Amino acid sequence: MKKLTIAISICIAFLFILQGTAFCNAKGHGDSRAVKKGILLVAFGSSEPEAQVSFTNIGAKVEKTFPGVPVYWAYTSHIIRKKMAKQGKILDSVTMALAKMKDKGFTHVAVQSLHTIPGEEFDGLVKDVKAFSNMNDGFTQILVGRPLLSIQEDVERVVDAILANIPSKRKPEDAVVLMGHGSHHPGNAYYSAVNWQIQLRDSNVVVGTVEGYPEMDTVLAFLKKIKAKKVWLMPFMSVAGDHAKNDMAGDEDDSWKVILKKNGYKCETILKGTAEFDNFNSIWVDHLKAVVDHLPK
Ligand code: CO
Fold this sequence. Notes:
The chain is of the alpha/beta class. It folds into two domains: about 1-150 and about 280-290, 3-Layer(aba) Sandwich (Rossmann fold); about 150-275, Rossmann fold. Helix content is about 45%, strand content about 15%. The strands form two sheets. It has a four-stranded parallel beta sheet with strand order 2-1-3-4, sandwiched between helices. It has a four-stranded parallel beta sheet with strand order 6-5-7-8. The chain starts with a helix and ends in a 5-residue tail after the last helix. The site of cobalt (II) ion has 2 residues, from loops. Cobalt (II) ion binds near residues 181 and 243.
């Protein structure tokens, strides 16, 4: 079983590297430009000012890990970019950021997805990067780093990080419910992969999602089964943004906190996105390292 898991992991890792290599637009002959390396960090985005701490943390870690390599940012959510533009804050899309980097003469770019699962946002990012990899006078090499959850090792590291970040005040009999985003995309299956492994380590911890599976009803059935009395609610999203503030910890009827209380559970909410924790950021940064290692020294 372990062998099979390793084999599958290697296959997936290999696929990503292949995918990365496919973006290489090795110009070889005639490309006499000096190497100019850059990093592009790509997040979903958030309109909540409190969520910025997540981006600041991971940005600082990336700059420390790759000194001297300029770091650019792009945001995949069209809605967030539109909302922020209304407030006078112009955020770049992936294509806007890559166009700027191309214009500034970058030859080698490592693009890092700061998404949680390889879902719709990640697919869109890959498509945008592919378009740039085939451009005339474009980048010599452009590679994409995997999102938080990709190979089996990521699932294990994510489970470690979740368990390490649970507040020390939580008692073993207390349940911990994490709110993931969720998606109709096949990548949604990663939440169940995390749940399976987390259950082997701590049978009172479960990840639910707002827009995918497992949904709140499944979480409630789980809490009933384990006879929980108190529940710790934490986001499993890079930022503690709108979903965490309102859908998880808000006071409206449909917030998870209110639903849990209505069902008789005591509830503690933690408003901290995963990118506020160094152990999660290390996973993203290691994925970025894996692609930066493929660029010229
Ligand atoms: Co959403």
